[in-house]
Structures are given as C-alpha cells and as structure tokens.
Write a structure and sequence with these properties.
3-stranded antiparallel β-sheet, single chain, alpha/beta, 8 helices, 13 strands, 5-stranded mixed β-sheet
Length: about 280
C-alpha cells in the first residue's frame, strides 16, 4: 500500500496568519445551556474516523466525538446526540436543533455569512484510487471520472484543480461525479463507476486500515484548510467558552492525546483560530 501522507501544518507557513482567540476574561456558558445541563449536538456519522458507528457495537465513535465529550465534561454538561445527512448540518445549526456543529465540517468563507468557525484541525482534499489503478501521479487523473461528496467543498476543489493542472496544460478536464457521502463514494469506486475519489486527508488512513490493500493515495492534497466547530453568529458567548476549553486542552496535552489516538497528530493546530481558513 502506498505511503499515507498527512497534511502538514508547515504547509500553512506564510499562507495563513494565525488568529488567536483570547477573550479578556473567563467566558461562561449561555444561561439556557447551563440551566438545562445539556448540549444538543448533531453529526453526520459517515465520516470515519471523525464520526462513525463502530461496526461491532454500533456505538457512535470518532475524533470529533471524543473532543466533544471532553468539552462537555469540562463544561459540566451532558451531550444529547442526534444524526443527520451532511447537507442538513448547517440547517440544523440555523434552526437551533444543534447548539454548535462539530462534525468534520470545513471552515469556508462561503459558510461565514451566518456562522463563525473555531478551527481545530488541519485538513485538505486528497485523491485516492483502487490499489490496482494505473494512476501513479495526480495528472494521470485528468480526463477521468472523480467522485466526491456533493455537499462538501470538494467538488469546487476538483474543478479548480482540473482547470489549473489539467486544462491549463491542454489535458482533458476531470469529470466530477457526485456522491451522497464518503461511504457512497468509496462504493462507487469499488463498483468501477468512478476511477478516483476525493476525501479529506484526515479520513484516508482510517479507510486504508479498514480495507487493507484496497486504496492507494495519489499525490499530495490539492488544497489546504481547516476543520472548524461551527457556531451561529449570535452565539459569541458559547463560541468563546468552547474556545477557552480547547485552548486548555491543547495546553494540558489532552487534545494531543485524542488526535494521536486517531492517528492524526500531524493534523494538529497550535491554537484554536477564528475563521482562519484561506478559502
């Protein structure tokens, strides 16, 4: 199996100015959450290892689940989890079915009109193919059918990459094929309906470990960004208290323990950042 390449934090050097979030005083939970003692959180559980159901126990697991549970413990509240398709994550925040979103969602400028992101993980879209594919480098994918989840930022990233790398060099454009989620996209790849696929770089090591010898990564990530915890614009108080707790988790090492547990220590940020992704 090809070597699994993580997104390197150094790739952002000189590219993004870190936006430190440091409230002047200790923030407090909003009164309604504190009084209820409950956080309502919604996830799309098809994005292992960020959030998924353990095949053996059906337990909801993942890096985001561990981070949220640690946050809740420190805040003295319990989490009531619900699940929804990825495309419904943002509506669930806007309609207040969720207090915030921590579910493998990328910080993007287009999503900041009604929400703020506290960025906590480095990410980037990555090509992968079946192990037996003849594609060796990314340019081998020009003109081929490439699948990814329709409701993510990855379709636009594939289009930008195709224009800059394929079409600019006189090669045929990549052909984007939509999928419902990462599981659907991998199934399309195995069924031969697409020739390559794109997922966040943080998910591919897990996919490779679950289906040994099935997938091979091609090239480096085609873009760089951050995953963020998504808050409504009018929930600055909740955003600040969560940010303080993430800073504390980074300082005391519990953040690193969680990332290392899921094999994603190289995707760590030095501190939580507000709306820092360059997209």
């Amino acid at each position: 199996m090809g070597e699994c390449r993580r997104v390197r934090r150094s790739s952002f050097a000189g590219f993004v100015i870190l936006a430190s979030l440091a409230p002047a005083g200790a923030a407090e939970l909003p009164a309604e959450i504190k009084q209820a003692g409950v956080l309502k959180l919604t996830v799309n559980s098809t994005y292992a290892p960020m959030e998924y159901h353990d095949p053996a126990t059906n337990e909801l697991k993942g890096l985001d689940i561990d981070l949220a549970n640690e946050l809740a413990k420190r805040l003295g509240v319990k989490i009531v989890w619900s699940e929804t398709p990825f495309a419904e994550l943002i509506p669930s925040l806007q309609t207040r079915r969720a207090d915030f979103i921590i579910s493998g969602i990328s910080d993007r400028a287009s999503r900041r009109e009604t929400a703020d992101f506290v960025d906590y993980l480095v990410t980037g879209p990555q090509f992968f193919v079946l192990a037996e594919s003849d594609a060796k480098v990314a340019t081998d994918l020009c003109g081929r059918k490439i699948g990814t989840t329709r409701s993510t930022s990855f379709p636009q990233e594939i289009e930008k990459w195709s224009k800059a790398v394929c079409e600019a060099a006189g090669k045929p454009a990549a052909q984007y094929v939509p999928g419902e989620n990462s599981i659907d996209v991998r199934n399309q790849l195995k069924q031969g309906r697409i020739e390559a696929a794109v997922q966040g770089s943080e998910t591919l090591p897990y996919a490779q470990s679950q289906e040994t010898g099935k997938y091979r990564i091609v090239g480096e990530p085609i873009a760089f960004g951050y995953q963020g915890i998504m808050f409504r614009k009018d929930d600055a108080g909740l955003r600040e208290v969560v940010t303080e707790q993430i800073k504390a988790m980074i300082a005391d090492g519990s953040y690193k323990v969680i990332l290392d547990k899921w094999g994603l220590g190289a995707n760590a940020v030095r501190e939580p950042m507000l709306n820092a992704a360059p997209q």
